[in-house]
Amino acid sequence: MPGRLQNKVALVTGAGSGIGLESSILFAQEGANVVLVDINLEAAQNVVALIATRSPNVKVLATKADVSKEADVKAAVDLAINEFGRLDVMFNNAGIMHPADDNALNTEEHIWDLTMQINLKGVWWGCKYAIIAMRENPTDEAKGLHRGGSIINTASFVALMGAATPQLAYTASKGGVLAMTRELAMVHAREGIRINSLCPGPLKTPLLMDFLDTEEKRQRRLVHLPMGRFGEAVELANAALYLASDESSYVTGTDFKVDGGLSSAY
Ligand code: NAD
User: Hey, is 16 helix, strand or coil?
Assistant: First the structure.
């Protein structure tokens, strides 16, 4: 049976860890050739090695890029086009959550700026170069390939609800991702480019586990989670796969929640 991303080309940012790592593995398993982008090249290369053993029939590449830098993002998209001939899926997933005391009174300007540069501006660069590439995608009916593509931007549940543990810059950056995604989805819908936000709940990945760095902090957070557990990165990767594939062909402009019910909780 053909994979759900057979013959497609995907680019994943933040591919060296967490959601990006699991999504890269899954995309490759479903038949995509994948460009893995991370500021930590070694981490991305380790994922390439993992995929090479599990999915030997697809091509995977790792490249170092800082998503906050326009030239880096352009070069990563160019790599996908030059090596694989097209770009069908752009997963703008890289993000940071600074462990600083991030509230209105204490957040320092440089932490606000860094968070916005990576989490929000990085998504803009990813959307910009993906849209330019996807407009040029050649149609190949026999291979199930068409013009346009799917862009997935990782936001967060904190952009949908107020968190009592303040992460002001982070929350504001993710709110920007939601708003930008909605607008871009409308502007580019008639070009066959679907653009959706993915809204994860709290996950057992380095990003959150480094932030909740004691068992006491984790237990305090777990009390608020309807399922009584943190999510797994692979549970987000499964949702990203749906948004990446043609199975979601009538889905655009959404904030796709994978949060264990948290956003419905009282
Ligand atoms: P993670 O820390 O496990 O992985 C993030 C990856 O991004 C790392 O490999 C890191 O090297 C890379 N990265 C960081 N800055 C980069 C940059 N400037 N350029 C390129 N790569 C960079 O995190 P994760 O939990 O997998 O998070 C992925 C996304 O999900 C992030 O956008 C995060 O904000 C979002 N998110 C996470 C949670 C959670 O609970 N973990 C919840 C909601 C949203």
Answer: coil
Is 4 among the domain residues?
A: no
| 242 in catalytic set | no
pLDDT at 164 over 80: no
For residue 57, what are its two tokens? 């029939």
Q: Are 196 and 252 in contact (CB under 8 A)?
A: yes
Catalytic residue among 129, 170, 242, 266: 170
Query: Range of 198's domain?
Result: 9-261
pLDDT computed for residue 175 by the predictor: 98
CA angle in degrees (0–180, nearest 5) for 18-214-160: 55
Task: Judge if the beta carbon of residue 160 lies within 6 A of ligand 1.
Answer: no
- In 10 A of CB 81, how many CB atoms? 18
- Kindly give the number of the ligand 1 atom that is closest to the alpha carbon of 68: 18
Decide if 3 is inside a domain: no
pLDDT digits (tens, 9 = 90+) for 63-76: 999 999 999 999 99
Closest CA to 198 of 229, 168, 160, 162: 160
> SS3 helix, strand, coil % of the chain, rounded to 5?
50, 15, 35
Cβ–ligand 1 distance for 176 under 6 Å, the answer: no
- Ligand 1 centre to CA of 140 (Å) is 34
**The total number of structural domains that make up the chain:** 1
Question: Mean of the pLDDT values across residues 111-134?
Answer: 98
Q: Which atom, in ligand 1's list, is nearest to the CA of 154?
A: 32
- Interval 19-60: pLDDT, tens: 999 999 999 999 999 999 999 999 999 999 999 999 999 999
Task: Report whether residue 33 contacts ligand 1, using a CB cutoff of 6 Å.
Answer: no
| ipTM of the predicted assembly exceeds 0.95 | yes
- Domain contains 208: yes
